[in-house]
Amino acid sequence: MASNQHFPAVSDTLPYPVYFRLDDYHAHQQFDYQSHPWGQLTYCSTGVMEIMVAGQRYLSPPQYAVWIPPETLHDGYIRQDVTFHSAYIDASLCAQLPARPCALVLSPLLKAILGDFAGRGVTTPATEADRRLAQVLVDQLQLAPCSRNYLPGSDEPVIAALLAALQADPGSNRSLAEWAAQLHVTERTLARRCQRELGMPFGEWRQRQRFLAALPLLERGDTVQAIALELGYSTASAFIAMFRRQSGGTPDQFRRGLR
After folding, report:
1. Contact between 180 and 190 (Cβ < 8 Å)
2. What is the CATH topology of the domain spanning 18-147?
3. In CATH, what number does 157-258 get?
4. How far apart are CA 231 and CA 169, in angstroms?
5. Is the model's pLDDT at 25 over the cut of 80?
């Protein structure tokens, strides 16, 4: 059973305008709704966290961070063991950051800064060098593109069961009709529930999931052909076409960007 708790808090004020946290959480922990006077960047370097913010549920995989503006109500659910990074950013620094919650694409530099502070156990930047690095992080967040490739979730039992099965096997090519039969609903009912709960059709959600699943495989150096087969595509060209639709570029362009 999920345990409810609060996101870790520091106090009513931050000890420095950019404050960092690193926490390890076990699966199935539930965090209560809350808001803060500062902005919050949440990022999982391992695992996936689900965050409900402004009425939209986001899954936060390692390639994306979820940006939560100041005074925005949010909660969280840990679907699997995670290493969870937070950067709390004073409201005075948030004017140039997104005014609405969104998924941000994390550049290699942003990941490196978060990883560096985490590796050294820095929460409050105390040295001039660390304060400059914290400012670089804020500058880079201003440049980070918002992504439409967030992956919404749902607590509705039928849709939750469908999404869990797809997360366990992203390469599954079962049709919506086949899933409906397994879940004991009609295909039309399942299609309606997907649209209502996820804000998109089943096929769009599955494409986004496969796109997100491909990113760590590309980072790892797997071949495009191997990734295509693992994610249920019969040809590399079909996978590349999906990747281009989702990202605007090819898998090789994404990999070159990492370098």
Report:
1. yes
2. Jelly Rolls (2.60.120)
3. 1.10.10.60
4. 8
5. yes
